[in-house]
Write a structure and sequence with these properties.
With 291 residues, the chain is α/β, with parallel strands linked by helices. It has twelve helices and nine strands. It is 51% helix and 13% strand.
Length: 291
């Protein structure tokens, strides 16, 4: 059954899901901080909105794709936030990768208004999302998830229900921290190989077909070899640094020490502080290069 879906954000992942949602016949109301990003979506049938509140008006479900806690707080709870117009019984679906503590607090505030909340970070590249290959990592009650399941099945490939609100975020944060570990380690492999004079293309090809290859590594190693960190950006160095820092905060909150994760997190934090945050994740190799 076609629904009215409000979208908060029109970045790479959000735009991909919006296109998929439109293809499935749903009505899409979308807000984005930069209105220019909405124009291609409007051409496909989306309705441009002036504020998060407008995007949430009369929506059956409101889906957010924000960069961090601060942005998510603004679009949900701000003066013109979605929560000011969401109708009781509608569902807030947070697909962003946020800190665990913030997710729990946000869910409490949203539920207090009579709306439901689903912790639903996603995995997949934008192309995967647009093709309907999204995997939703869910933290929610069974009842609320059952209400959202038809839409998620319509636009995605798989729903993984880890448990109550916050559990989807726990998995996503550790999943993304693992990606940081893979990428940081792959950068060391490439940096040493290049310093030793090995052929970069051969290194990339051998890595991609080897036993230690991961998807994160295979996506980023070609950019490490070529030095091109400006094109075909699927995920930025800064966003990976943010996700890793949230994962480390989760570990700290749980009284756990993650030395490997900490090392990888520090690599991405340094790369971001060095001005590489807006570049592709392959840019972390630049922190390892010596004359």
């Amino acid at each position: 059954m076609a629904q009215t879906i409000g979208f908060l954000g029109a970045g790479r992942m959000a735009s991909a899901m919006i296109i998929r949602t439109l293809q499935k016949g749903h009505t899409v109301q979308v807000w984005n901080r930069s209105p220019a990003k909405i124009k291609p979506l409007v051409a496909l049938g989306a309705i441009a909105c002036a504020s998060p509140a407008d995007a949430a008006t009369n929506a059956d479900m409101v889906i957010s794709f924000m960069a961090d806690d601060t942005a998510a707080k603004a679009v949900w709870l701000g003066e013109h936030g979605a929560l000011t117009t969401m109708k009781p019984g509608s569902i807030a679906v947070e697909c962003s990768t946020l800190s665990h503590g913030f997710v729990l607090d946000l869910a409490t505030k949203i539920q207090a208004t009579g709306c439901s909340y689903i912790d639903a970070p996603v995995t997949g590249l934008p192309a995967d999302v647009q093709a309907g290959e999204t995997v939703f990592l869910i933290g929610a009650t069974d009842e609320v998830l059952d209400q959202a399941r038809p839409f998620m099945n319509d636009v995605g490939k798989r729903i993984v229900h880890f448990g109550p609100i916050g559990s989807g975020t726990v998995y996503k944060l550790m999943h993304n921290l693992l990606g940081a570990v893979h990428i940081a380690a792959a950068a060391e492999l490439v940096a040493v190989a290049q310093k030793a004079g090995l052929d970069g293309d051969l290194v990339a090809k051998t890595f991609a077909t080897g036993a230690n290859a991961s998807m994160s590594g295979k996506i980023t190693v070609p950019g490490m070899v070529s030095g091109n960190h400006h094109e075909a950006i699927h995920f930025t160095t800064g966003l990976r640094a943010k996700d890793a820092s949230y994962a480390m905060q989760l570990a700290t909150d749980m009284g756990m020490s993650l030395p490997v994760g900490r090392a990888a997190s520090d690599v991405f934090t340094k790369a971001t502080s060095d001005g590489l945050g807006d570049l592709a994740q392959s840019a972390v190799i630049e922190t390892l290069k010596t004359d």
